[in-house]
Amino acid sequence: MADSGRIDEVAVIGNTDVTSTESENNIINTMVERGTSLLKKMEINVAEAEKRTGKNTVNMQETYTVYLIEIRPAETVPEGETPTAPDTLWRRYSDFELLRTYLLVTHPYIIVPPLPEKRAEFVWHKLAADNLDPDFVERRRVGLENFLLRVASHPVLSNDKIFFLFLTEEKGWREAVLETGFQDKVDSRIKSLSAMYRVKNPDKRFTELKLYSDELNSVISQLLRVRAKVADRLYGVYKVHGNYGRVFSEWSAIEKEMGDGLQSAGHHMDTYAASIDDILEEEEHYADQLKEYLFYTDAVRSVCRKHELIQYELEMVAQDLIHKKQQKEDLTTGTVRVFSLKGMTSKLFGQESQEQRESRLAALDQSIREGEETLKEKNTECQEFVRTACEDIERFKEQKDRDLREALISYAIMQISMCKKGIQVWSNAKECFNKM
Amino acid sequence: MSVTAPRCMASSGQKPIAEILHPLSGGGDEQQQQQQQQQQLSVTVSVVVGGDKEASLTNGAPVETPSPASTSSLFNRLQLDDDPEADVRDPYAETAETRDLFVTVDDPKKHVSTMETYITYRVSTKTSRVEFDLPEYCVRRRYQDFDWLRMKLEDSQPTHLIPPLPEKFVMKGVVDRFSEEFVETRMKALDKFLKRVADHPVLSFNPHLNAFLTGKDLNKRQGLALLTKVGESVKHVAGGYKLRPRPAEFCAMGEYLDTFNQKLGTIDRIAQRILKEQSEYLTELREYGTVYSSWAASEEELRRPLEGVGGCVATCCGALDDLGDGMSQDFLPVLREYVLYVESMKNVLRKRDQSQAEYEGRLEAAILRKQEDRTPMPAEVEKCQDKVECFNADLKADWERWQSNKRQDFKQLLTGMADKNIRHYEKCQAAWESLLTVLQDKQAEDKTHETN
Questions:
Q1: How confident is the model over A407-429, as pLDDT tens digits?
Q2: How far apart are the C-alpha atoms of B452 and B450, rounded to whole Å?
Q3: 3-state secondary structure B4-53
Q4: Do A254 and B419 touch (CB under 8 A)?
Q5: Do A361 and A331 touch, CB atoms closer than 8 A?
């Protein structure tokens, strides 16, 4: 997936008999662009995973996995010299989650890269559902590294102080995050939901984006689900062929001239049956690439929701201002609006004095002035949001097109490799049959 | 080519083993086989008393119906036979007045068929006995039949001395079986035999004689008789069959067939299971392809690549479909044919075993009999032995042929299976490779656009 920046760590997805052009392509079209932002300055990778046990917040023993993050200044190493030792620290998954939440809140107009899944989903094989399963841990390690690299290469996010601390400060990081008080900025669910239904002038760009994001989410979910079923079935097909191995071996025992050919053909059938394990393991990488974009859709949706909220608030402020101005006008012109409380009370209790009116007017004026200020602020906020969000959306779209095409290419390469293996095995078997 | 003993017809190389009649079905030797065939064609020897039309045996041999002249000649002959000379010769002969069963053997005729050449004699009967439906009969019988009759009489009347028959075995090349002299001599002897039997107060009432004279289902009873006779010997040998197992080489064949059959069954089951799994895989794969296509609809830049992937998957589905069809049409049926082949081979082995059992049973019985009354080795036993030997030789030759064919057939079958799978993967690979070119070209295009 993501390139750590070092040539030797280019992730060639699964396929070992990749041609030089294909390999070139892989390097050129890495998920994350080299030489941008933070990655200009440092190399980041998540090197290892380790199991730890400790007491959690409710004072209970738990086992968890920690990941080792290495950082190294991005410098060319002169010939013959060993690169400088990296700075390292350990983080667990919940630390990553905290970081991400912080980034989401602090940069609401940015489509924040997703984390790898917390629990294994869309599994085709029951064995893969275990969180402590080494294959799952390994894939998560890769996913976490990818996350860090994506953030580090983002024009906005890479400059975030907390992110920098995440990579450099092991001990005091959590406190630093909490000190920012970002939790206060978290919008309540209810607020954002109500905003969704009450925005009067929704921005078409964002509604379309939201729609697209939902569609993408749905289609990728479906794809992953069906892919898991396909993998399961394919596994069955390959494994049943293994039975040929056994029966050919037994049969060869009662044959004279046919025996050798049958026996060796049987071995090839065993090879064929065994080959599916690696094939499907490789395909998991492809599934992970799809999953990343599945989770990305959540980030896109939250940007859209934030926009709705801002829009809604803007509309509220504008509404409020109009209302106040109307009030002033009423007061000035002495218009009594039917069904207004003021009108009723004045009717009931008599007209108010000039003094009272004047003080009320002054208060209103003040309020209007404040309202206008707020409106200006909100407008600016909204415009700013829209500007930055649209920028990021564009960036995201390009990234998505690039990445997914790359994923499809590597998928095609995987399929070709699988076909070649199949042809090889059956050709070998055919040779054996011919010798019968 | 099989090795055949000169006299052995039953298992000649011209006839496939499987078509040889089961010995217990009455085809123990060629004569009985012939009569079995006659019986199977369900033709009774029709006897027409009077009339010119000639009834014929199923093998085309005409039966000379007694013309009025011959009827009288019968009488004449009877009359002639009633000469004192005959009476003197035959102590059992009753006086002409009291005798109510008159038999004559005459009119020898040569019959030529594809299988053999032999002589039949006319056996004429005149009687007033109630055991006979008609007063007169005229049948054609050959030596075999007389032999049978004698055998039957011996069995059913062990206390009586049964008149002898002329010598059965004739040395070929020494004596011409078909010379007039020989035939005449034989005929007379047969005639004498029959007359003595007919004149015997006890033997003449034997139902076998009745059958013989009237041309009734000699075969069926013969078959049954054979059955009982063989039944005894089989009983005798049934324990004996166990005592004397198959010769090692046939044992090995049997074992091989059993194991081979088992393996065929397993392979069939595996192939079917694969087809089932592939079919389920195909169902999922089809849906998988459609998801890519529907995704393509909501994309712009990615539309072509996604449609391409969807198309590839669809192509693979088609290829998989073809593979499945090929396997179920070409592979499975041939496999199943071989299961039947194995079954029929096993049947042949069983027949061989039964033939051997019969032979051994008869041999034992014959040996016992030989010890008792010094009768020569019956022809059937020798014929049985011949049959068994032919059977064995033919079976061995057939086995080799079968093994060789099996090897060729399975080589072809399995390489065919490999070919089908190779073709399937080739089709899939081609589809993905062409997609890859398109995707990568587009990518290169984009790259150059970006740098520009």
A1: 999 999 999 999 999 999 999 99
A2: 5
A3: CCCCCCCCCCCCCHHHCCCHHHCCCCHHHHHHHHHHHCCCCCCCCCCCCC
A4: no
A5: yes
Q: Phi first, then psi: what are they for B120, rounded to 5°?
A: -115, 155
The answer to whether the Cβ–Cβ distance between B267 and A409 falls below 8 Å is: no
Tell me: ipTM over 0.95.
no
Q: Quick check: B291 and A223 CB within 8 A?
A: yes
Residue with tokens 């990234």: A399
Of A395, A83, A428, A380, nearest to A272 (Cα)? A428
DSSP string, B290-310: HHHHHHHHT-STTHHHHHHHH
Check whether A34 has a pLDDT greater than 60.
no
CB contact under 8 A, A212 and B284: no
Question: In the numeric block, which tokens belong to residue A391?
Answer: 């920028």
Summarize the confidence of residues B256-285 as an average pLDDT: 95
Reduced to 3 states, what is the DSSP secondary structure of residue A102? Answer: helix
- Residue B143 corresponds to which amino acid? Y
Q: What is the pLDDT of residue B31?
A: 45
- For residue B320, the one-letter residue type is L
Query: Rounded distance, CA B251 to CA B255, Å?
Result: 6
Structure tokens that stand for A39 in this block: 């990655």
State percent of chain A over pLDDT 90.
44
Map tokens 């069906």 to a residue.
A226
Q: Work out whether strand B101-112 and strand B55-56 pair parallel, antiparallel, or are unpaired.
A: unpaired
pLDDT exceeds cutoff 60 at B368: yes
User: Cα–Cα–Cα angle for A406, A408, A412, nearest 5°?
Assistant: 115
Q: Which residues from A are below 8 Å from B260, CB to CB? A: 251, 254
Candidates A294, A410, A423: best to mutate against B (most CBs of B within 10 A) is A423
Would you state the structure tokens that stand for residue A346, as one six-digit string? Answer: 């004045």
Average predicted confidence (pLDDT) for chain A: 83
The secondary structure of B359-384, three-state, reads HHHHHHHHHHHHHHHCCCCCHHHHHH
Q: Give this prediction's pTM.
A: 0.65
Interface test with B, best of A33, A226, A425 (most B CBs within 10 A): A226
Chain A: closest CA distance from residue B325 (Å): 16
Q: Which amino acid is at B35?
A: Q
